[in-house]
Amino acid sequence: MSENVAGRAIDAVWRIESPRLIAGLTRLTRDVGVAEDLAQDALVAALEQWPASGVPANPGAWLMAIAKRRAIDRFRREELGERKRDEFGHLELARSEGAPGFEASLDDDIGDDLLRLVFIACHPILSRQARVALTLRLIGGLTTAEIARAYLASEATIAQRIVRAKRTLAEARVPFEMPQGADRAGRLASVLEVVYLIFNEGYCATAGDDWLRPSLCEDALRMGRIVATLTPSDAEVHGLVALLEIQASRTHARIGPNGEPILLLDQDRSRWNRLLIRRGFEALDRAERLGGPLGPYTLQAAIAACHARASVAEDTDWVRIAALYDALLEVLPSPIVALNRAVAVGFAYGPQAGLEAVEELRFEKSLEGHYLLASVRGDLLARLGRHAEAAFEFRRAAAATENSRERTLLLDRARAAGDVDFGPRRSTQS
Amino acid sequence: MRFMLLMMPAGYGDAAPGTMPDPAAVAEMMKYNETLEKAGVLLALDGLHPPSMGARVTFAGGKATITDGPFSEAKEVVGGYWMIQVHSREEALEWAARCPAADHETIEVRQVMEFSDIPAAVRAAGSRE
Predict the structure, then answer these.
(1) What's the gap in Å between the CA of B13 and the closest CA on chain A?
(2) How far is CA B22 from CA A118, B19, B28, B79, B102, in A?
(3) Among A111, A141, A245, A335, which residue carries the largest CB count within 10 Å?
């Protein structure tokens, strides 16, 4: 095996094995930073040995054996150092090495260990940025350089962020445990939020020549799917996966030939990925079958599914979408959700009804001067034949947006409102 | 990026209709499938009945001609597939290498052509507008 080929093969093994490796080692050492160091030691050993010996038959077990050996060396050194016992919760484990429990403790419940690791990486004690970086690193198996590239940040910045996050976790002595009871819901919500943030970072990068960030969507989906197999009875996990699968299905339809964004209703639906849509439907079905009130991710997935079911935009079931937005507004009250609801109402019950829904938002502080509000109003007014007012709203929206492509589009619509019945229909979603 | 792992069992070309894999092999394979699923990389998979239950459609001379299976002369026929989403070709190969396949089985690893892989000119020709 040439060194380069071996290096890439080792990268692949690392991506597959590192989350479980680090999870198992965190159980042993009770410190995610130490666990990652040990896993890195094992990776270095692999880089030294595998180019000559080839990738072993069970690379995961090989890496774990090396890491464990390093762990034991480390514990012995620490014992010799006569440092205070209470600094090392893991000392007990090191001593029991050789006892039957030691081996078994690594192989049992790897899934549970992985889930504990997910909970740690997404711990609310960390900033959102830190959670994202740590999750990509520990669960996604990305290198610091890959994370830096995806977030258009310097490698040093990301490395620093990860180091600090691990220090914060160690200093707070965050336990390697499965959160229980009321705590669990909040902790799981943080996990889902992190996965969704990562997905959106990839999804909202619309630059045509930037294909690195769609891979961020793939990473988020992969992690979402992993979490779904780890917590199969949590409806919202499946709801989130459903939402991501369906949104990802539109990846190739939402960017035009010149890198310009194409909004949902204008997309060529033949370019939607049917396989991802089907997976999204299946995940949504799992979420709904688990019962209970539908959470925000499941409701958003259900809305996305309504769009996915319509083979042409004209077939969209807007009445159902409007009803789903009503439900979403209950669990996730936000002006943007309310605005999206108004758009749905406008399609379901006509522009007058939509306009009335928008009027309710006129005094919403956070929407004041927001281009979306003006743009939605403009659209509804144009459909009511109130062209002068529509043109005024489109110009106002154009002045408020910071996105130059969006501005061009809105100014076009302002012009169009002057001489035609109405321009191409738009919604705020894409 | 997506890859299709095509499982090609030798001798499947002229296997009798309704031929089923050995139950022990199926159990192993299901464990493997579960591993792919838990790793979040599995998009789809299917096993295919032998060619003796299928047919080939050829288009020589601009005309569709149907020939019923089996195809004993065919060295390689597909017996099933996995579609996976991974970060690199090496990762796809690593997953394929972990398949509990038998001596007579071969897995061909093929990358799925993504929309972004297709040159703009070809894309434009295929566009509806």
Answers:
(1) 28
(2) 38, 10, 10, 14, 11
(3) A245
Angle at B111 between CA B107 and CA B115, to 5 degrees: 155
Model pLDDT for residues A197-222, shown as the tens digit of each residue? 999 888 876 443 454 477 899 999 99
Q: Is B74 on the interface with A (CB under 8 A)?
A: no
Q: Which residues of A touch B83 (CB under 8 A)?
A: 275
Q: How many CA atoms lie within 13 A of A224 on its CB side?
A: 32
Q: To probe the interface with A, which of B32, B83, B94, B98 has the most A CB atoms within 10 Å?
A: B94
Q: Is B8 helix (H, G, I), strand (E, B) or coil?
A: strand
Q: Which of A196, A376, A426, A409 has its CA nearest to residue A298?
A: A196
As a three-state string, the secondary structure of A74-85 is HHHHHHHCCCCH
pLDDT confidence tier of residue A406, bands split at 50, 70 and 90: confident
Under DSSP, the state recorded for B26 is H
Q: Judge whether A208 and A259 are in contact, CB under 8 Å.
A: yes
Determine the residue among A1, A11, A13, A15 to mutate to test chain B binding: the one whose Cβ has the most chain B Cβ atoms within 10 Å: A15
- Interface residue B123 vs chain A (CB under 8 A): yes
**Euclidean distance between CA atoms A215 and A202, whole angstroms:** 7
A411 to each of A65, A375, A407, how far by Cα in Å?
Answer: 64, 11, 6
Question: Which two tokens mark A272?
Answer: 């939607």
Residue A7's pLDDT is what?
79
Residue extents of the structural domains in chain A: 1-108, 110-175+185-227
| DSSP annotation of B45 | E
The reported pLDDT for the residue numbered A155 is 94
Mean pLDDT of B17-40: 94
Q: Which residues of A touch B41 (CB under 8 A)?
A: 222
CA distance, residue B70 to nearest chain A CA (Å): 30
Distance CA A152, CA B74 (A): 51
Sketch out chain B's domains with CATH numbers: 2-126 (3.30.70.1060)
Report in angstroms the alpha-carbon separations of B32 from A67, A343, A383, B67, B100: 25, 46, 55, 35, 7
- Alpha helices of A54-180 — where are they, by DSSP H? 59-80, 91-95, 100-107, 110-121, 128-138, 144-150, 155-171
DSSP A331-397: HS--HHHHHHHHHHHHHHH-HHHHHHHHHTTTT-GGGTT-HHHHHHHHHHHHHTT-HHHHHHHHHHH
Closest-CA residue of B relative to A146 is B87
DSSP string, A213-276: THHHHHHHHHHHHHHHHHSTT-HHHHHHHHHHHHHHTTGGGSB-TTS-B--GGGS-GGGS-HHH
Distance CA A370, CA B82 (A): 46
Tell me: pLDDT of A102 over 50. Answer: no
Nearest to A191 by CA among A299, A162, A183, A245: A183
